[in-house]
Amino acid sequence: MKPTTDSPCARALAASLRGIRGESGLSLSHVARMLDMEKGMLSFWERCLRLPRPDQVARLLGCLRVSEDRYERLMNMAYHARDTNWLPPGVAEDSTELSPGLIGVMECERVAKQITTWQPVVVPGLLQTADYARAIISEGDISLEQADLLLITRLSRQNILTRQNPVQLLAIIAESVLLNEVGNEDIMSDQIDHLLRMIDLPHVSVRIVPDERKYHRGKNDSFVLYEFDDQVPVLYAEHTTGGSFRTEEQKIASHRGLATVLLDKAMTEEASRMRLKEAVR
After folding, report:
1. What are the pLDDT digits (tens) for 73-95?
2. Who contacts 269 (Cβ-Cβ below 8 Å, separation ≥6)?
């Protein structure tokens, strides 16, 4: 059965509902009885095969007794679940919950067949070591608890590269990423060693774009493109304070074109490997 909508917001809503019920410790059957509905329909909601109405989401959240802040965020998602483009709301800096946007990213990663990412500043999150990721996360004005949650989440997301049916990852990175010291020299050295190990995987490709003085659009336009077997592609454009999800054909085509331009500028896979080896301290 195919989803009734391919929107990133709908995927994030489904994952959130699934997660909240899991946190409650209640089975699908139990919650379905509480709501006086079919267990199968609740399962469809959690797998994004059917989209619940906002009033149905409200009943479910009330049944599971979620906090007021969480209720408001999820109801916002319920009202925007059919939107093809989505600018997720944030969460409080001291919150110990994942943001709707991060949940959306995780759902896209979980079901994607191929991921193409361009990063002009830092190593993509899916290829970061724990120390490198912690150094980046700790730069934010967030609590220690939130930093720990984000680190654990980022590392767990990397399982899509080592699971039985791994995602195909094409990571295009600027050469300056190797020179931007994150943490300290030891952290950077370990990070580059990790990249060298990851590119030995047949489904992981890292291409390095040499630094040049001439401006091109990619210098200030990091992005991630998710492609699926039977759903429309999703573009996630990252910003300083968050990100946005886009699905319209023009945006997808534009960023596929940008990826092609960047790959034309990039070193070959073997040359990229040699550049990484040169960067090892």
Report:
1. 888 888 888 887 776 765 555 55
2. 199, 205, 206, 207
- Look up residue 122 and give its two tokens: 């830092």
Residue 4 in 3-state DSSP? Answer: coil
8-24 and 39-46 helices, crossing angle to 10°: 120
C-beta of residue 173 within 8 angstroms of C-beta of residue 122: no
Residue for token digits 């370990």? 190
Dihedral-angle region of residue 48 (phi above 0 means left; psi in -120 to 50 means alpha; beta otherwise): left
Determine how β-strand 242-246 pairs with β-strand 168-174. unpaired
pLDDT in tens, 132-172: 998 888 877 777 777 777 888 888 899 899 889 999 999 99
User: H-type helices in the chain, by residue range?
Assistant: 8-24, 28-35, 39-46, 54-64, 68-79, 100-111, 130-137, 144-157, 185-198, 249-265, 269-279
Polymer length of the chain: 281
| pTM (2 d.p.) | 0.76
Structure tokens at 195: 């990249």
User: Using DSSP, how many helices (H) and how many strands (E) does the chain show?
Assistant: 11, 6
Amino acid type, 277: K
